[in-house]
Amino acid sequence: MSIKSFLKTLIGIAAGCSISLYSLADVVVIVHPSNDAALSQKDVQRIFLGKEKKFSNGKEVLPINQVPSSNARGSFDTDTLGRSSTQIAAYWSKLVFTGKGIPPKELDNDAEVLAIVADNQNAIGYVDSASVSDAVKVISLN
């Protein structure tokens, strides 16, 4: 086996491992318990892509992202937004550069997202399902 083909194989294995780590995270979308807005996956996509500024009940929305290096972020981008994290970053770079949008605030981990969503009736975020507490409400995206 040549060095070149060995490196290609190694890179493929590494990429496969990183993808499987993202798929291990069971990510759920959360809102404040008093939020009565109806949300579909399409609504969540529009909110996190800056296309929707209000919940279905008319209240302002404050989307909270996690940092790009988090497992929850990779899983959310792929499974909920239907794009890779790289595609999402490129999307927001274009909007910011043209002055047409500001990406959602990014927090470091599930605990920080839970704290913000629990304290703000207009916040929406996502966390690993194992991190969910009674301080927030999980939204089913069926």
Give a short summary of the structure.
Helix content is 44%, strand content 15%. Strands 3-2-4-1-5 form a five-stranded mixed sheet, with helices on both faces.
Give an overview in words.
By secondary structure, the protein is α/β, with parallel strands linked by helices. It has one domain: 3-Layer(aba) Sandwich (D-Maltodextrin-Binding Protein, domain 2). The protein has helices at 3-24, 41-48, 71-79, 85-97, 110-119, and strands at residues 27-31, 62-66, 105-107, 123-128, 137-139. The chain has a five-stranded mixed beta sheet, sandwiched between helices. α1 (3-24) packs across α3. The radius of gyration is 17 Å and the shape is globular. 25% of the residues are buried.
Ends apart, CA distance between termini: 47 Å
Q: How many individual domains?
A: 1
Largest sheet: spatial strand order: 3-2-4-1-5
Q: Biggest sheet, in brief?
A: 5 strands, mixed
Query: What spatial form do the alpha-carbon principal axes imply?
Result: globular
Architecture per CATH nomenclature, i.e. the level-2 architecture: 3-Layer(aba) Sandwich
- What string gives the helices and strands in order? HEHEHHEHEE
Poorly predicted ranges: 17-23
Count of helical stretches: 5
Q: Any key phrases for this structure?
A:
D-Maltodextrin-Binding Protein, domain 2; 15% strand; 142 residues; 5-stranded mixed β-sheet; alpha/beta
Secondary structure: elements and pairs:
Layout: H1 3-24, E1 27-31, H2 41-48, E2 62-66, H3 71-79, H4 85-97, E3 105-107, H5 110-119, E4 123-128, E5 137-139
Parallel strand pairs: 2-3, 2-4
Antiparallel strand pairs: 1-4, 1-5
Helix pairs in contact: 1-3
